[in-house]
Write a structure and sequence with these properties.
Among the domains are: about 1-205, TIM Barrel (Alpha-Beta Barrel); about 320-465, Rossmann fold, CATH 3.40.50. The chain has an 8-stranded parallel β-sheet with strand order 7-6-5-4-3-2-1-8. The protein has a 6-stranded mixed β-sheet with strand order 10-9-11-13-14-12, with helices on both faces. Strands 17-16-15-18-19-20 form a 6-stranded parallel β-sheet, with helices on both faces. Helix 4 links the parallel strand 4 and strand 5. Helices cover about 35% and strands about 20% of the residues. Helix 9 (about 235-250) packs antiparallel against helix 18, helix 12 (about 320-330) packs across helix 13 and helix 17 crosses helix 18. It contains 18 helices and 20 strands. The protein is α/β, with parallel strands linked by helices. Bound molecules: NADP nicotinamide-adenine-dinucleotide phosphate. NADP nicotinamide-adenine-dinucleotide phosphate (NAP) binds near residues 284 and 441.
Length: about 500
């Protein structure tokens, strides 16, 4: 079930929002503490969708500031309209809970709720046990996630529970639990009516919960995939993979996992049913020692962007090399004997350097990194896999004029120029010449400042967009064993990225 909270500053806005929410929601939460008094009765009278009534006090993250006794009286008044659910905070004084229970009609069910806006405490089961001692029909535990692992703890709380329970995490780290709670047996999840109408941190629009993640169709058998990164909120991968799953009739969901500390990452992901995931910035190198099996090429290049599980074991591989090759090939058939310059010494730069040999024997490679330490690490790893002449230059000490004179293909493998810093560019554009092929691996925006300026200088340009599509399609095929619906993935990604550009 998807519930949409109604919170507005005028009666008119509240009624308008309610009408819109009823079209999307299975259930409406009437947040009395976030509504003007004159809106209460019209909202409580309306019975088009099941309703939850809450008058949240400040200590539980709400806006109600009065005494508990007056809060109880106001809730009793609301009970006169026979809502389907009434939400009562677990720390409400027992005699007031008793009074509310006596006043409610037979059709009103009680949600006993616990909110924690600071953390996901370790003693969740003890808290749940205490809450169960109240005479409630449904228990609700909502906590703040401070890292990915908090999602795991809250979802595992639902394991084996016969009682109806609502459980998920708030905050940007908590997004996976908002989506996966229904798969884990949670009674409902909340979605905002739209951006800006969130009643709690990290609440995503109900339109995205249904449209992108199909949260209302998720069940225990739905397979789980996702992307680990930090941050991940700008990733378009959930849009393209979820659209592709739906198009080929594959019962799966792809979720963004914001991960800061690895901890027991692989075990934790498996414990919530994850079968495969993409790896993005900044975890492509870090993931390797965590995996049991990494194919030889990816291990030697030192970067994994795709992880899958087979017979209980985790495997890592890299589809960036293939994606970049498809993108470059479409722009230039002859990649033989070129002089490559790569900006960045991270995961993507490693994939491009390792792939350069696959694309066509490079004449030379120059890598520009921010720090000597990471650069030296990169060069040492590359020399293990290739005899191609390679040199490393620290960006701050680089003579770009000389470097570009000796470059045929220039690749940006740094996030410089990516949203939101779209006006950034590491390369002085007056040094670019029409003979340069310029490839920016960034796909958001689809044309970076580097590419725009390179195009104006008469260079051939390649956007990271095609690389993104092809690496994603290869991941999809690896996970599902089905052909990726590439045209649909492209259309979906273009829709998201162009929409974002218009929004900006
Ligand atoms: N099109 C695609 O399919 C695709 C796929 C993956 C990634 N990408 C793009 O590639 C970019 C890098 O991803 P990644 O996974 O390789 O990340 P990563 O492993 O974190 O590497 C990023 C590299 O860029 C350097 N860097 C970061 N900020 C910089 C700055 N302000 N100036 C100079 N260098 C800077 C980093 O330097 P330090 O070592 O000093 O941190 C590091 O060497 C992403 O932002 C993304 O846009 C595209």
């Amino acid at each position: 079930m998807i519930a949409i909270p109604i919170a507005a500053s005028t009666k008119h806005d509240a009624l308008r929002d309610l009408e819109r929410a009823e079209k999307m929601a299975d259930c409406i939460e009437i947040r009395l503490d976030l509504l003007p008094r004159e809106a209460w009765v019209p909202l409580l009278r309306r019975k088009r969708k099941p309703s939850i009534v809450a008058l949240r006090p400040e200590r539980q993250g709400g806006s109600f500031q009065g005494e508990e006794i007056s809060r109880t009286h106001l809730l009793e008044e609301a009970l006169g309209y026979d809502p389907d659910f009434i939400d009562v905070e677990w720390d409400t004084p027992p005699h007031l809970i008793g009074s509310l229970l006596r006043k409610k009609g037979a059709s009103t069910r009680v949600i006993v709720s616990y909110h924690n806006f600071a953390e996901t405490p370790h003693d969740l089961r003890t808290i749940l046990k205490k809450m169960a001692s109240w005479d409630g029909n449904i228990l609700k535990v909502v906590t703040l996630a401070n890292d990915f692992v908090d999602n795991v703890r809250i979802l595992r709380l639902l394991e084996g529970r016969a009682e109806k329970t609502i459980a998920f995490c708030m905050g940007s780290f908590g997004l996976p639990s908002r989506i996966l709670t229904l798969r884990a047996g949670g009674y409902l999840t909340f979605g905002a009516l739209e951006e800006g109408k969130e009643s709690a941190p990290g609440q995503i629009p109900a339109r995205d919960l249904k449209g992108i993640y199909r949260a209302h169709q998720i069940h225990r058998g739905t397979r789980v995939f996702g992307v680990i990164g930090n941050p991940v909120s700008h990733s378009v991968s959930p849009n393209i993979h979820n659209a592709a799953f739906a198009a080929v009739g594959y019962d799966a969901v792809y979720v963004p996992f914001q991960v800061r500390d690895f901890g027991n990452l692989i075990h934790d992901l498996a414990s919530i049913g994850v079968e495969g995931f993409s790896v993005t910035i900044p975890h492509k190198e870090r993931i390797i020692p965590v995996l049991g099996n990494v194919d030889e090429k990816s291990r030697r290049m030192g970067a994994v962007n795709t992880v899958y599980r087979q017979s209980g074991e985790w495997f890592g591989t890299n589809t960036d090399v293939y994606g970049a090759w498809k993108a470059l090939q479409a722009a230039c058939r002859d990649l033989q004997e070129k002089r490559w310059t790569i900006l960045g010494a991270g995961g993507v730069a490693r994939a491009i350097a390792a792939g350069a040999e696959m694309y066509g024997q490079p004449k030379s490679l120059t890598v520009l990194g921010r720090t000597r330490k990471r650069l030296d690490h990169f060069l040492a790893d590359f020399r293990k896999i290739s005899s191609c002449p390679i040199g490393g230059v620290v960006i701050g000490e680089a003579d770009f004029g000389k470097i570009l004179e000796e470059t045929d293909i220039l690749v940006n493998g740094t996030p410089v120029g990516m949203v939101p810093e779209v006006d950034e560019n590491l390369i002085p554009s007056d040094l670019l010449r029409p003979r340069h092929l310029v490839f920016d691996t960034i796909y958001n925006p689809m044309e970076t400042r580097l590419l725009r300026e390179a195009r104006k200088q008469g260079c051939r340009t390649v956007s990271g967009f095609q690389m993104f599509l092809h690496q994603g399609a290869a991941q999809f095929e690896r996970w599902t064993g089905k052909n990726a619906p590439l045209a649909l993935m492209e259309q979906t990604a273009r829709g998201c990225l162009q929409g974002e550009e218009t929004d900006n």
